[in-house]
Design brief:
The protein is built from 5 helices and no strands. 70% of the residues lie in helices and 0% in strands. The radius of gyration is 13 Å and the shape is globular. With 99 residues, it is mainly α.
Length: 99
């Protein structure tokens, strides 16, 4: 994702791989079974955010925080980072975050 931006098909593919890898790493069969649906939601959210303007912010630093938390085996930090990614994605498309 760092090499290609989310404006390019390669960058979007890298983002899809990132999220699919995270889903598989959970070991949660129910969540893993939703991988294609979640991947589609991530992809279309990215497309929606870019349709009339550039991305409102660079999402790579937030993805990196999540990656580092997972790589460090820090579950609480990974959960917080994923929650932040979801909140930012919702804010980017003008939807209120869930409680």
């Amino acid at each position: 994702m760092g090499k290609h931006t989310l404006f390019s098909p390669l960058g979007q593919a890298a983002d899809q791989i990132f999220h699919a890898t995270l889903l598989n790493a959970t070991g949660n069969k129910g969540l893993i079974s939703l991988a294609s649906t979640i991947s589609a939601a991530v992809r279309w959210t990215t497309i929606y955010k870019q349709r009339k303007r550039k991305l409102p912010r660079d999402p790579l630093p937030d993805h990196r925080v999540l990656y580092e938390a997972v790589a460090d085996g820090d579950g609480p930090a990974a959960r917080a980072a994923m929650h932040k990614l979801i909140e930012l994605a919702l804010a980017d498309i003008n939807l209120p975050p869930r409680a």
